[in-house]
Fold each of these.
Amino acid sequence: MDSLLTEIDHVAIAVFDLEAAIAWYADVFGATVEHREIVEADGVEEALLRVADSYVQLLTPTRDDSPVAKYLEKRGEGLHHVGYRVDDCAHALEVVKQSGSRVIDESPRPGSRGTTVAFIHPKGSFGTLIELVEVGG
C-alpha cells in the first residue's frame, strides 16, 4: 500500500505572544513569515515560517474559547500538532475512520492558505494531534 502521507506540511507550535515568537525565530534562525492569517473558524492567528518545503506554524488564540486557548491554559506553550500533506483529504480521513481511529472532523473543511483539512484526535494517534492537509492546486 502506498503511503497516504506525501510530506510534512507543518509543525504547529502554540504560543501566547505571536509577535515575540515571530521575532525569536527571525533573530535566532533568520526565519521570516511567509504567510499570516486569522482563521476565524478555529479562533487562531497563524504565522507560517517556511523551512524547505514545509512550515513552522506559530499559533495564538484570538478568543478564549478556541481549542488553542484551552491547550495553552492546560499545557502551556509548545508543540500543538503535526500537519501531514495528503493528495485527497476526504479519502485519507475515510481511511482513518475505517481503521477505527477517533477523529475530530467527520468531514474535511477549509483550512488556511486555501487548503482542505481534517483533524485526527490524539487519543487515536498515540498522543499526537494530527492534521491532514490537502493543498489546493
Note: The mean pLDDT is 96.
Amino acid sequence: MSQEPQKTTLWGEFVAFTKTLVLILALAFGIRTAVVEPFKIPSGSMIPTLQVGDYILVLKFWYGLRIPFVGKPVVTWHHPNRGDVVVFTRPDDPNTPQEDDSAIHIIKRVIGLPGDTIEVRGGHPLINGQPLQEPYAQWAEGGNTDGDIGPLTIPDGKVMLLGDNRDRSKDSRFWTDPLLDESRIKGRAVIVFWSWDSLSRIFNVIR
C-alpha cells in the first residue's frame, strides 16, 4: 500500500512529460510548416547572391498562411514582387530532371509578374520591351543564348523565375512550361544564417 502513491506519481509524471513532448513537437512542426524553414543552397545557380552550401532562412508566411498537408496557402495576403528570391516546388519536368522535381525545393528570383510581356535574350530579360536593371545577376559565359525565350505575356496567378547565375541556371527558360503557379511558392528567402564560403556572409540579408 505504501508504494501505491509513488506509482501514481511516476505515472502522472510520465503522462505530463509525454504531453509536453507532443506539444513541443507540434509547435516545432507548425513553425516549420507555416512560419520559417531552413534551406541549404544545393547548386551555383544563384551565384553571386548565394553560394553553394549557404544555409538560409525562408519565411513561409511572407505571402500567406499555409497549414500542414495542404498544398496551397489557405490565406494569401501578398503576391510576389519582382526581384524576390523565393523557394518553391514544381512538377517533374523532363527537360531539367536534375533540378526540377516536385519533391525538391528550388530557389530562384522572381523576374516576370502577371501582366508582363517578357522575353529573354542572352540571359537578359526585357519587360514590356524595356531591359531590366539587374545588379544581382552575372553572366559567366557572356550571355548564353541557349535559354532565349519569348516574348510571352504572363497571366494572373503565374510568375517567371530566373537564377542570378544567368548562364548556369536551369530556370523558367528551360522548363516545358516556363511559368510557375504562385501557389507553388513556399516562401521568401530572407537571410543567410550560415555560410561555409565566408563567415562575413553570415546574417547577410538576401536581396
Note: Residues 35-201 form a domain with the Umud Fragment, subunit A fold (CATH 2.10.109.10).
